[in-house]
Amino acid sequence: MKIGIVGLGLIGGSLGLDLLAQSSESEPNYIWGISRSPDTCKQAEAIAAVNIASTNIQNIPDVANTDIVVICTPIASILPTIQALAPQLPQNVIFTDVGSVKAAIVEPASKICQQFGQGFVGSHPMAGTAFQGISAVERNLFQNRPCVITPSEDQAALAKVRSLWQSVGMQIYEASPEDHDRAVAMISHAPVMVSASLIAACQQESDRSVLQLAQNLASSGFRDTSRVGGGNPELGRLMAEYNQSAILRSLYTYQQSLQSVIKLIEQNQWAELEAFLADTQSDRNFYVE
Amino acid sequence: MKIGIVGLGLIGGSLGLDLLAQSSESEPNYIWGISRSPDTCKQAEAIAAVNIASTNIQNIPDVANTDIVVICTPIASILPTIQALAPQLPQNVIFTDVGSVKAAIVEPASKICQQFGQGFVGSHPMAGTAFQGISAVERNLFQNRPCVITPSEDQAALAKVRSLWQSVGMQIYEASPEDHDRAVAMISHAPVMVSASLIAACQQESDRSVLQLAQNLASSGFRDTSRVGGGNPELGRLMAEYNQSAILRSLYTYQQSLQSVIKLIEQNQWAELEAFLADTQSDRNFYVE
Hints:
2 copies of one chain form a homodimer. Helices cover 52% and strands 12% of the residues of chain A. Chain A is an alpha/beta fold. Chain A is elongated, with a radius of gyration of 22 Å. The two termini of chain A are 36 Å apart. At the A-B interface, α6, α7, α8, α9 and α10 of A face α6, α7, α8, α9 and α10 of B.
């Protein structure tokens, strides 16, 4: 397969690394890459994340027989990037992306691709580390991690994208953009706001000695609960901006859950509180091991 | 020193283990233990967490020259345990505890001890693992972990309790019971309710396919944010019951923080949301590394 990767950060670079590592004589992969940064292009070539990389697609030889182009840019750049590249790529090429929202991407991206006789299948490979950029790339980053792909009438395109992510070890789930966005709002986007609000609430303490003591005593419980609230602010903003209705829906439901816990505590309903916590203890097992 | 440990679970057992391991000819420690379970007593003796253990203090020889008694029972049993043991122990013995709340314990415990010419200093050694019971004990469990002790007019008692926790490697912070309870509500008790409410909110999803997808996609972010909400329900209930006003205070502040984040998202205030998340990212460093 000939695969283009646009955006050579952690996800794009790690994808290229695995695809080139699995390339064989009988099933060779050829990977071209595009990044805004000439240094990143050089580094991606040096570590064999790509065969060739450039800041400009016109410097890439023989793009004409490319099978799949994977857009690995931040969410806000996905549509403009497809818009810019589609006219320079052949008919029948398939675009996919790696964005953590799908409804805001899939319909407009499909429309752009259609204009050029090209296909689009939305992807959300859920893999990552605390680090970013080409210097953070990892072999087997995607192994056993879930990847959502969105439905398409073009069964051949769907099969190619599915097999791309399967080849790097991902578990594939097909879901509508709307279902994807609601599920991801629940377990990924809303938790960022829930967690960030906890840090902000602690900082509201006006008694300096209590605040200082809290900071000294904070340990693994606070570390874990606050972790995603201390993450990349730009990413958090983009999640909310591009998944606004689903994240609000999740946060409203969350407010109600929290309010009922507060009511139990206010009204000394200790047995009910313990039963509620026994439910959350057991329900958590549905989500994580 | 001659030290009694009442309640031979993870905390009591690990404390005994470290105290006996550091016992030397020049500074010998003698540890007696009490547990409700004869099996636990045997096991504590077998692993050298105590020199002798029994279900009944009357079976412990020479309790008369005990220096400190550490009550390592669940919160609800601390006061009844002191009430039962104080008449059977000498004047001048010092009681301390390991409860995660202090205002509900320190004043009544001090009053009981005073009646018998004994001292009380509240302690909260903040150490633990995901496991419970004598079979979960660990050497060096307390090493470099924070321990709050509450003020006392009895400077000798305070010094003895401070030195007990220092001897197992703890960082000591002296704070009033009220300041302790507010700080711990912020960074430990409220996060349990914040985290549990997240699990409960996800379970509210009525669309089975979205719920199933969310459960399949949940990963490290959800794992961390939900961890303390999936903890021991009895412990969660006791935190709320014995630290009711401080935990409610923290949760009200939390509700306001969450509400302002929701408002930013509702009103498309993306730059403000990003600035808010940049603050929480940087403020988190005051609490955890």
